Amino acid sequence: MVLLNDLTQRLQADDPEEKRIVTGVSWQQYEALIADLGDNSGYRVAYLDGVLEIVSPSRRHERGKTRIGGLLELFFLETDTEYFPTGSTTFRKEDNQAGGEPDESYCIGTEKDFPDLAIEVVVTRGGINRLELYQRLGVREVWFWENESFSPYYLWEETPSQSMQTFGYGKIERSEILPNLDINLLAECLSNSNPLAAAKEFRQRLRSQLDRA
What does pLDDT average to over the chain? Predict the structure, then answer.
């Protein structure tokens, strides 16, 4: 009989996520790498002040980000919310020495050069600080999905003064850009291992919430 902890460790070993950090990288070298990798790369690349992070996402990572995106698009449809998916587009600002590729990202209301919302699925910790990266890119809201729960942050200070440790972001209970979204409901449905059943449950419970509003 296989213990649950042993099984979890085996699954993680069979589905590794590789991360590499390289320092002393120029902006020109970063852009050359992005060009070489092209649009069909399976890697996620981030850059901040000469530090380059390259991640080869695991299957769990990709499954998580795809399922989050699927339920969010159900929310947009059911609430008639204008949205523009920008996915894992490479966003970068040379003046701020910052570039990154979210797991999922969206512009809300109107299409913009940079997304309003970036979502990061956390499987392995360490590497470039995503809040600092997204603050430099001007992303208003960042969600971290880790251990079956969301940690959402909103950019209250574009030039951080009081919230220096979180680079101007403050942790929030509800989304500021999607105030009608119940993030706890979203997380609860994502905990269902069956994607179809999770989508049906989310849609049904979302409709019930909207009917009561």
Answer: 90
Are 164 and 155 in contact by the 8 Å Cβ rule? The answer is: no
Q: What are the structural domains, with CATH classification, of the chain?
A: 58-212 (3.90.1570)
Q: Over the stretch 144-202, which tens digit does the pLDDT of each residue have?
A: 999 999 999 999 987 777 777 899 999 999 999 999 999 999 999 999 999 999 999 99
What's the per-residue H, E or C state across the chain?
A: CCCHHHHHHHHHHHCCCEEEEECCCCHHHHHHHHHHHCCCCCCEEEEECCEEEEEECCHHHHHHHHHHHHHHHHHHHHHCCCEEECCCCCEEECCCCEEECCCEEEEECCCCCCCCEEEEECCCCCCCCHHHHHHHHCCCEEEEEECCEEEEEEECCCCCCCCCCCCCEEECCCCCCCCCCCHHHHHHHHCCCCHHHHHHHHHHHHHHHHHHC
Task: Decide if 4 contacts 21 (C-beta within 8 A).
Answer: no
Residue of 133, 157, 160 lying closest to 144 (CA atoms): 133
Can you tell me the distance from the alpha carbon of 197 to that of 210, in angstroms, rounded to the nearest whole number?
A: 20
Residue 63 sits at φ, ψ, to 5 deg, of -65, -45
State the amino acid at position 55 in one-letter form: V
Place of tokens 């850059």: 47
